[in-house]
């Protein structure tokens, strides 16, 4: 296999996946063509900050990357839309439950006021001012 130019680790990693039988048949120009096509298709340039580099250490190399920018992946956008829908349904259910509890409280209060106005004793001898032992 011709020596691949060192550079972007992302591109190197993809080119290393080429089967050895195929890699032996490629010329230096073909390798450079693949490298250029991969670099053009790569996400580099879509982010506000995109820093990639390799730290060569004594026994190994460490690949470092710092990317900062708006997340434009479709999968993430779909997840965010689903989360917003679920949150909207949750807020709607909370508003509906709060409204139902408020309505129930108002109905019970009106019934209590009507009971007092009609001077009804639901439990004889038990009520405000009529506590047992008084």
Description:
The chain is 52% helix and 12% strand. It is mostly helical and 134 residues long. It has a two-stranded antiparallel sheet. It is rod-shaped and about 105 Å long. 1% of the residues are buried.
Distance between the termini: 105 Å
Number of strands: 2
Question: Which assembly state applies to the chains in this document?
Answer: single chain
Major β-sheet profile: 2 strands, antiparallel
Counting H and I runs of at least 4 residues, what is the number of helices? 4
Assign the structural class, choosing from mainly alpha, mainly beta, alpha/beta, alpha+beta, or little secondary structure: mainly alpha
H/E series: HHHEEH
Please tell me the total number of domains. Answer: 2
**Uncertain segments of ≥5 residues (pLDDT<50)?**
none
How much helix, percentage-wise, in residues?
Answer: 40-55%
- Per the principal axes of the C-alpha atoms, what is the gross shape? rod-shaped
Radius of gyration: 36 Å
Strand order of the largest sheet: 1-2
Mean pLDDT: 80
Proportion in β-strands: 5-15%
Task: List the keywords.
134 residues, 52% helix, 2 domains, rod-shaped, two-stranded antiparallel ribbon, single chain, 4 helices, mainly alpha
Short account of what is shown:
With 134 residues, the protein is mainly alpha-helical. The protein contains 4 helices and 2 strands, in the order αααββα. The chain has a two-stranded antiparallel sheet.
Topology:
Blueprint lengths: L8 H8 L3 H4 L4 H14 L7 E8 L4 E8 L5 H44 L17
Antiparallel strand pairs: 1-2
């Amino acid at each position: 296999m011709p020596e691949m130019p060192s550079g972007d680790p992302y591109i190197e990693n993809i080119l290393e996946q080429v089967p050895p039988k195929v890699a032996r048949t490629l010329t230096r120009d073909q390798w450079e063509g693949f490298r250029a096509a991969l670099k053009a298709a790569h996400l580099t340039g879509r982010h506000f900050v995109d820093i990639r580099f390799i730290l060569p250490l004594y026994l190994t190399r460490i690949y470092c990357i710092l990317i900062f920018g708006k997340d434009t992946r479709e999968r993430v956008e779909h997840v965010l839309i689903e989360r917003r829908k679920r949150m909207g349904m949750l807020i709607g259910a909370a508003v509906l439950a709060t409204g139902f509890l408020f309505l129930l409280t108002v109905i019970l209060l009106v019934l209590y006021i009507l009971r007092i106005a009609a001077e009804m004793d639901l439990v004889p001898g038990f009520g405000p001012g009529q506590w047992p032992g008084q």
